[in-house]
Structure formats: C-alpha cells, structure tokens
Amino acid sequence: MTPPPTVLAVATVSDPDVKAGYATDESVGAQAPEHFEVVRARSLDDVVEVMRWADATGTPVVPQGAHSSLTGASVAIEGGVVLNTEGMDSITTIDPLEGYAVAGPGVLNKALKDAVAAEGMFYPPDPASSAFCTIGGNVATNAGGLCCVKYGVTGDYVRALQVVLPGGEVIRTGHRTAKGVAGLDLTGLFVGSEGTLGVVTEVTTRLIPAPDPALTVLATFDSLDAASAAIVALRRERHLPSLVELLDRAAIAAVQALADYGFPDDCEAVLLVQSDRPGHTSEDVQRYAGLLTDAGAVDVAVADDPAEADLLLAGRRALSPALEAEGPRYLEDVCVPVGRLVDLIREGQRIAAERGLEIVMAGHAGDGNLHPSIFFDAADPASRERAHAAFTLIVDAALGMGGTITGEHGVGSLKAPWLPRELGDPMIERQRAIKALFDPRGILNPGRVYWS
Ligand SMILES: Cc1cc2nc3c(=O)[nH]c(=O)nc-3n(C[C@H](O)[C@H](O)[C@H](O)COP(=O)(O)OP(=O)(O)OC[C@H]3O[C@@H](n4cnc5c(N)ncnc54)[C@H](O)[C@@H]3O)c2cc1C
C-alpha cells in the first residue's frame, strides 16, 4: 500500500495492538486481514485527504464508526484502509424551534439523545447498542431498535447530510427546514448505504418534543403462539405502544443469569410493552394490560415505578451480551408482516427440532422483526454447518412470508448472498449503477452489500 500523505501521519494508527482493535466488528466469525491501515479521522479535512489518496491509489476504504455491526459491514479489508470517524464527535447545533440537531458522525446515539433531552427534545432512534454505536453508523445502516413500533427508524429522523465522495468532493444533501421537496431525495439514498457510496461527515437529525417518561407492562405467556397473538392485538391499538419486545424462555434465562433484572423464570415468553404518550401513560398501560390478559397472558404486571421499568429495559438491552456469553451463534434479523410472526416463530421451532439445534427467539416483535439466535459448537464444524443451514432456512422462510432478509442490521457481508433474491436482478443492476455513479472505482466498502 502507498504510504499515506503527511497529514495522515497524525491520524494513522501505527501501534499494531491498537490497530488490531479496529480490524473487526461484532459479526460472527469476523476475521482481521493481514495488511490494512487505520486512520482515525478528527476532521472533515482528514476524511477529504484520505478519500483523495484512496481514489488516486485505488485503495479500498472501510468507513467505520464504533464497529458494532453485526453483519461484517465494518471489518477491515485486505490492502485497505479503515477510515474511523468516532473522533468527529461534536454536536454543533440543537435547535428546538426548527426541530433539528447537527452532529458529527462519531457522536454516540445515547450522547445525542441525552444532549437533546436537556433541551426538552427527543431523538427517537434507539438501537439496543445506543450506548456505544455512532450516529454515522446508525445513518449508514438505517438503524432501528426498541422504539420503532411507534417512531420508525433512523431514516425517519435524518434531514440532511454532509458526505465526502471518493476523490474528496464534499457534497450536502437534504434540507434543514421542516419541509423540503426540491429534487431527488439523495439523503434517503445515503441512509442505509452501509458505507458503499460516501463517508458521512455531518448529520442533521430531526427532533420531536420529548415524550413522557415511559411506563412498562410485563406480560408473561405459556406459549410463543399466545405472545404472537397478543402482539397482533397490540398493533390494532389506536394509540400504539412505544415499545413491544419479545423474549422467549431461553432469552429470559440468559438475561437473568447476568443479573436479576426482574424477569420471571417460569414462563415460555414475555412481552415488554411501554407507553410514553404525553399525559396518557397510566391510562395506556392499564388498557394494554387488559388487552394482553384478553389475548392470553397468564400474568400481567404494570411497572409504575420508573426504577423497576428501567431495570426491565436494562435487561432487554443486556440480551445480546447475555446470549453472547452462552456461546457462538448466528444472529438473525429477518422481518415479516406482523400477522406472520407466529408462522415465523413456528418455522424457527420446527427447524430447531429437525436439526437438533438451540434457537433462541427474541427481538423487536412489535415490528415483526425477530432476532433468532442459532447456537453452535465452535469445535464441531458439522454443528456450525447445521446452524448456518438453519440461518439460511429462516431467511428463506421470511422471504416466503413476504418479509425481508434484514429489518435493521443491514446486509454487510453476511446477508450479501441473499440481496439479489430479495431485490431481483433488474433492481440489483440499477443499484450497482447508482453505486458506480458515486464510486466509479469501487473503492468504498467493496464486497459489502453487493457481491463483487
Ligand atoms: C449488542 C448490540 C445490540 C445491537 N442492537 C441493535 C438494534 O437494536 N438495532 C439496530 O439497528 N442495530 C443494532 N445493533 C447493530 C449496530 O449497533 C448498528 O448497526 C449500528 O448502527 C452500527 O453503528 P456503528 O457506529 O457501530 O457502525 P459500524 O459498525 O462501525 O459501521 C456500520 C456500517 O456503517 C458504515 N459507516 C460507519 N460510519 C460511517 C460513516 N461515517 N460514513 C459512512 N458509512 C459509515 C460502515 O461502513 C458499515 O457499513 C446492535 C449491535 C450490538 C453489538
């Protein structure tokens, strides 16, 4: 690789141990390549410089935030440069009147939420990784999370972007005003592009007035079928809950093994349901409790003590590390129509029984977005193969139900083989043509999303 120009000497990581820390993400089996560089960008100029140099030398660039990707989207590439934007972490504007904030790509999701909350505003997108993932990564993956059932995903809260293209050109997309329909929606194009079109260097997010502190219902079920039926009933509500999360028996056990988060140990599934509707949280959770009982919950508890509610939610956020501690797993992210959730869960259970696998069911079930964890024995290649086959079957099942291969984690490397199946060749061709328009030399995150 051609040595980086002088300005990058400041930002390029030379210590091999530090460098290794940027080589992989949180995806299963992520492997560090042998030769790669890491640049920790601190400013727009750093990004421009890297993109100029990379384009001139044909060096692959992996834009990177907190490398919490679960799909291999932010793993270093052999002979490439990891362009990490965590250091661009300033919030320069919070404007409650106009309803926006301007943040660097390295600002943590939770830091933005906390900063705007201090001004009485709310930035809803809430991935379970909120405490450690970056806004740049959220934009690039169109991240979802726990409150999408009411508030939608990251893309619903991005008004404008500053992006650096290969060659170093800086462009601005979108608008800061509450409305703006001039021209094609290039902001929407960059949202969810997984670092394949440009490097996001500034994000203008839409803010809304802060909701009330949420109240929580914990409903327990003696079957996943009953929990799925209750979700359908909740989705028919006029005032949608702000959160509907599902954990099955094994997921609850894994979380409770970490600490006592207040989940019961004698049921097949729980639903965590919240309301944050200003002035109506008590009335909503009472109504949800009645509806959940009617739908077949064996027990319903309303956590009106915020500390108790926070503890339950902390338990939900601890689910990923809790399952991680149980052993290696493939983590699914399919999303199906809510009315087909029960079919997806049954299919997962059938596959688990047929293949002799443990598949733990949990996820943002209020959206039909499930994260089945398919466990395998790392020392046994046959077990890993069976787990991968089950992963494939679940994706196939979701597509067959009119669903999608990824509800929120993105395509990355992990799901790239399935993208043509979901989109079809004519659409893949057009998407490749759009990529070529922004990245003619194909240096941005090559091999991710679109198989080379
Ligand atoms: C425990 C855990 C829980 C999670 N829960 C959720 C969840 O509830 N919902 C959800 O949606 N995801 C979740 N994730 C996945 C992950 O946190 C999200 O995909 C997140 O948006 C990634 O942000 P990041 O800063 O880590 O980005 P990275 O992992 O560093 O990068 C992700 C993608 O964004 C691109 N990218 C990063 N920064 C930039 C930039 N400045 N410009 C252009 N492209 C860029 C990368 O190239 C890559 O394609 C979870 C992950 C973990 C480990």
Task: Please characterize this protein's 3D structure.
The protein is of the alpha+beta class and 452 residues long. It has 4 domains: 6-84, 2-Layer Sandwich (Uridine Diphospho-n-acetylenolpyruvylglucosamine Reductase, domain 2); 91-209, Uridine Diphospho-n-acetylenolpyruvylglucosamine Reductase, domain 3, CATH 3.30.465.10; 215-321, Alpha-Beta Plaits, CATH 3.30.70; 327-438, 2-Layer Sandwich (Alpha-Beta Plaits). The chain contains 16 helices and 19 strands. The chain has helices at residues 6-11, 16-20, 44-57, 109-117, 135-141, 148-151, 186-190, 224-235, 249-258, 281-294, 306-317, 319-324, 341-355, 381-400, 419-423, 425-438, and strands spanning 36-40, 61-64, 80-84, 91-95, 100-103, 121-122, 158-164, 170-174, 199-206, 208-209, 215-221, 243-248, 269-275, 299-303, 329-331, 359-360, 362-364, 369-370, 373-375. Strand 7 (158-164) and strand 8 (170-174) form a beta hairpin. Flavin-adenine dinucleotide binds next to strand 2, helix 5 and strand 9. Keywords: FAD, Flavoprotein, Oxidoreductase. InterPro entries: FAD-bd_oxidored_4_C, FAD-bd_PCMH, FAD-bd_PCMH-like_sf, FAD-bd_PCMH_sub2, FAD-linked_Oxase-like_C, FAD-linked_OxidoTrans_Type4, Oxid_FAD_bind_N, Vanillyl_alc_oxidase_C-sub2. Its cofactor is FAD. It holds the Pfam family FAD-oxidase_C.
